[in-house]
Amino acid sequence: MLEDLQIRNCSPTTIRIYLHAITEFAQHFSKPPDQLGAEHIRQYQLFLIKEKQVSLPAYIQMVCALRFLYTHTLGRKISIERIPFPRRERKLPLILSREEVKALLEAPRNLRHRTLLATLYGSGLRVAEVTQLKVSDIDSARNVLQVRHGKGRKDRQTLLPAKLLDLLRCYWRSQRPTGWLFPGAHARRPISPKAVFLACRNAARRAGISKPIHPTRCGMPSLRTCSKPASISAPSRSCWAMPIWRPRHAICMSPRCPSGPPSVLWIR
């Protein structure tokens, strides 16, 4: 199965999840997968739903792994209908007010975390994409960010607002990253997705937001906010002030950053 996944150029995350799902499936019956059939699949699905009570995403991942195993690896003639997908839930979106968005993005005291959340929010990146950004991916001449090996291992370009570029320049002057734009504990490695989750959760806690906040909601396409323009108040004279970029919001320019020319964008 590993070789079949590699032949199809699946991502390391997909390979890890599929292999883990099939391993648990085989361990549940204490038999190799090639000795298990449709009835075993049905029993395991009921076990996951009734006894283990796994989440819907985990259940869907297991279904995908089983379908791949029996269709591509084993070549067994098990009807796909015997490994059905569950009916997806339809929930109302999480709505954050302008004040909550502002408080969330201004909450981190760490400049790197503030810039990271602003990049997620302003450029609509996924967590895995923002962690893999490099300094060379910033195209300041065209105001775009190069996203390399995104979801589905596809390269793409996303918007880079001018004021977010100013903040990134201010961040670069302070931290001087060379390779990874947001390095982890070791400079040669990027920041981990877990660190992004923790930074977002800590920012929400510090901002006093009781709603469940997830970093994937910080991107422009997924974070839903009130579109009514916000009022403006005078900004601080520090480049550590939290910038926010929203096309429909009223904005003003702050004084120049103490360490250089870029100024930051404020929303009040």
Top keywords for this entry?
268 residues, mainly alpha, 3-stranded antiparallel beta sheet, two-stranded parallel sheet, 9 helices, elongated
Structure write-up:
It is a single chain. With 268 residues, the chain is mainly α. It contains nine helices and seven strands. It has helices spanning 2-7, 12-29, 38-52, 56-73, 98-106, 111-123, 127-131, 162-175, 193-207, and strands at residues 95-96, 138-139, 144-147, 156-159, 224-225, 252-253, 265-266. Strands 2-3-4 form a three-stranded antiparallel β-sheet, with no helix packed on it. It has a two-stranded parallel ribbon with strand order 1-5. A two-stranded antiparallel sheet has the order 6-7. Helix 2 packs across helix 4 and helix 6 (111-123) runs antiparallel to helix 8 (162-175). The longest helix has 18 residues, at 12-29. The model is unreliable at 217-268 (pLDDT under 50).
What kind of sheet is the major sheet?
3 strands, antiparallel
Low-confidence runs (pLDDT<50, min 5 residues)? Answer: 217-268
Number of helices: 9
Mean pLDDT: 77
Roughly how much helix do the residues carry, as a percent range? Answer: 40-55%
- Walk across the major sheet and give the strand order: 2-3-4
- Bin the strand percentage: 5-15%
Number of strands: 7
Q: In terms of structural class, how would the helical and strand content be classed?
A: mainly alpha
Global Rg = 23 Å
SSE pattern, N- to C-terminal: HHHHEHHHEEEHHEEE
Tertiary shape: elongated
How far apart are the first and last residues' alpha carbons, in Å? 54 Å
